[in-house]
Every structure is written in structure tokens, then in C-alpha cells.
Specification:
The protein is of the alpha+beta class. The chain has a 7-stranded mixed β-sheet with strand order 1-4-5-9-8-7-6, with helices on both faces. The longest helix is centred in the first third of the chain and has 42 residues. The chain is rod-shaped. Bound molecules: phenylalanine. The site of phenylalanine has 12 residues, from strand 8 and strand 9.
């Protein structure tokens, strides 16, 4: 055995030790520590290789190198364990520091704040415009009496017009979820004396198969004016001004088509020029017109049933689907989103 070989081995062990300690000092977390542990004392690590080399040495060399190598392994293993304890301690201290500086009063619910439903937005807008035009906003019950939803509106029992509105009937006789907001016209007229300028918004119910554009519950808005000498001209001017305000379009135009509703005479349906295009788009299905709703001059029977003299007074009624307007205004393509309670959908408004 040569002394040179001896000291060469010693130097390598010393270098290994120094190298390991230097790198151990720079370790910052458990992951780094495990990587370094594997590199030095793992099964294929530096020490394992030195052990392998040991086999090639002479007996005398083994006698010196063997214990030295064992000593090195012990020192390193202890150093790694000590570092592990140190890291754990650091982690615990950091956690304790975080816990003690946690300020429960710093919770800000603001970031989770909800927003108004699109229906609430549009109701507010519609009502503001109508109030600015001098209308009184009134309310009526969603569960309505048959005589108000139908009879007082000139739709007697067994009249075919009842079939136009597929009604849900309650098990309690003569009560129904209202099929339209026209019922509120009657309540408004019965409780007041003309001149009247009334408007209402609210839910209506019809037995409809549900799809992207139909729902069994939807919202309507009804506008009613009763005074002396009210004519279709008042209706057109009012509807136009209102829709121009809602869609913020001075150039918005109206078009009418004759139609039939038992509670108005003449009855008509109204279309507005598409507020989203001038040449045809997907909203107006390239027709440049969008159906708005029904309207007409209040039928003398209806005025009479509400205690108003049709010889002295006349009036107009205009009713339209508010849900449809919501969908148009916000570009909502499926009516079912409106009742879905999906936060991702509702967050957008
Ligand atoms: N109530 C009618 C409907 O729901 C709409 C309407 C209102 C028609 C007022 C004329 C006058 O279909």
C-alpha cells in the first residue's frame, strides 16, 4: 500500500465533506434537501460510489478507508438530519408569524358583492322613462281572479280568445297565475278616476313548452292612458318616445299591423325598427323590424267594466314582452339563462 494512495483517498473524503457542507448551508427547502441527500448518501450517491471503490482497495487500505468512510457517512447523515430539523422549525415559525399577523377585521366582503339581475336593470330603466313621461307605476297580484284576468278584459267564459293564452289553473276555483299584465289595467282603472296614466311591469305565466325563446314564466310591461279624446296618435307618440328612450335611439321608428285582442278596438301589433342595425342583422333576422307587442284603443266594454264612461273617455293600452326586450338589449340568446341562477351569467350585469 502506498502512502500516496492513502492521502489521495483522504483528500477525496475531505473534499466530499466540504462540498456537502457548503451546499447544505445553501439549502432553502425540503425539496432541495432531499435532492442533495440523494446526491450524497442515496443509493447511487457519492458515498455509495466511494464504498464501491473500497472493494478494489487492498486489505490494509480498507482498514483505514473503511472506518473513515463510515465516519463520513455518519457525519453527513447527522448533518442532513440537523438541516431537516432546522427547515421544519423555520416552517413552523413562519406559520406562527402568519397566524399571529392574521387580521380577521381585514376581510373585505366587497369582492364577493352581487349585482342586479338584468330584469331588475331593465325594470328600473323602463320605470324611470315612464315616470319621466308622467306615468304612475302600479302593481298587481301575480295570482289573479278569473274575472279580472279575463271577464273584465272582454274575454268571457267559453270565448275562443281564452285559448290564445294557455292558462295554468290553480286547484282553488277561479284563481290563476295571471296570463298577462293587462289584468293590472283593470285594477288600476277600478281604483281611480280618469284621467289616468298608468304603467306596470311584472311576471306572467302561460302553459308553454320551454325552449331557448319560450318560458312558462316571462315578464310583461303594460302602459295605459285614459283621458278625453285619446286616439291612436297618442299611442304611437307614446310608444315611440318610450322605445326611443329605452334603446337610446332618436331615429327608432314604429310600424303597426292590424291584430285582434278582445280588450282593444281597434287592435294592433307593433314592430320597431331594429335598434342594432340599419341593413339587417341576426337580432332582427335580416328583416330590419322587431316585434314588440300588442296595443290598441281600450274596448268600451272594458272601460265600462271598470266604471269608466266610454262616451266621455277613451284610452289606449300597450303591452309588450319585457323578457324579450331584456334579451334583445343584452344580447341574451337563451331565455332559460334568466332563471338559471348561474353566477357566471349573472356576474356580467
Ligand atoms: N295582453 C296582451 C298579451 O299578453 C298584449 C296587449 C296588451 C294587447 C294591451 C293589446 C293591448 O298578448
Amino acid at each position: 500500500m502506498s502512502p500516496i494512495n492513502h492521502s489521495l483517498q483522504q483528500t477525496r473524503l475531505q473534499e466530499t465533506l466540504t462540498n456537502a457542507f457548503e451546499r447544505l448551508a445553501r439549502i432553502k427547502n425540503q425539496t432541495e434537501l432531499e435532492a442533495l441527500r440523494a446526491e450524497f448518501i442515496g443509493r447511487q450517491g457519492v458515498l455509495a460510489r466511494l464504498m464501491d471503490e473500497l472493494k478494489t482497495l487492498s486489505l490494509e487500505e480498507k482498514r483505514v478507508q473503511g472506518p473513515a468512510l463510515n465516519e463520513l457517512k455518519k457525519t453527513l447523515t447527522e448533518a442532513f438530519t440537523a438541516k431537516e430539523v432546522e427547515l421544519l422549525q423555520q416552517l413552523l415559525e413562519q406559520k406562527a408569524a402568519r397566524a399571529s399577523s392574521f387580521d380577521v377585521t381585514a376581510y373585505r366582503p366587497g369582492s364577493l358583492q352581487g349585482s342586479l339581475h338584468p330584469a331588475s336593470h331593465i325594470i328600473e330603466e323602463v320605470e324611470n322613462i315612464l315616470i319621466s313621461m308622467g306615468y304612475e307605476i302600479i302593481d298587481g297580484p301575480e295570482i289573479e281572479r278569473e274575472e279580472i284576468n279575463f271577464e273584465a278584459l272582454n274575454i268571457p267564459k267559453n270565448h275562443p280568445a281564452r285559448d290564445l293564452q294557455d292558462t295554468f289553473w290553480l286547484t282553488i276555483p277561479h284563481l290563476l297565475p295571471r296570463t298577462h299584465t293587462s289584468s293590472v289595467q283593470i285594477r288600476g282603472m277600478q281604483q281611480r278616476q280618469p284621467p289616468l296614466a298608468l304603467a306596470t311591469t311584472g311576471r306572467c305565466y302561460r302553459q308553454e313548452a320551454t325552449d331557448a325563446s319560450h318560458d312558462f314564466v316571462f315578464m310583461q310591461c303594460e302602459i295605459l292612458l285614459v283621458d278625453k279624446k285619446i286616439s291612436l296618435a297618442n299611442l304611437f307618440a307614446t310608444a315611440k318616445l318610450f322605445l326611443q328612450g329605452l334603446f337610446k335611439q332618436e331615429k327608432l321608428e314604429l310600424r303597426i299591423r292590424p291584430s285582434y285582442f278582445p280588450f282593444v278596438e281597434p287592435g294592433l301589433e307593433m314592430d320597431m325598427s331594429c335598434p342594432f342595425c340599419s341593413t339587417g342583422c341576426s337580432v332582427c333576422k335580416k328583416s330590419r323590424w322587431i316585434e314588440i307587442g300588442g296595443a290598441g284603443l281600450i274596448h268600451p266594454h272594458v272601460l265600462k267594466a271598470s266604471g269608466i264612461n266610454p262616451e266621455e273617455y277613451s284610452g289606449f293600452a300597450f303591452g309588450f314582452g319585457l323578457t324579450r326586450l331584456i334579451m334583445l338589449k343584452y344580447g341574451i340568446d337563451d331565455i332559460r339563462h334568466l332563471h338559471s341562477s348561474k353566477v357566471d351569467f349573472l356576474k356580467q350585469f
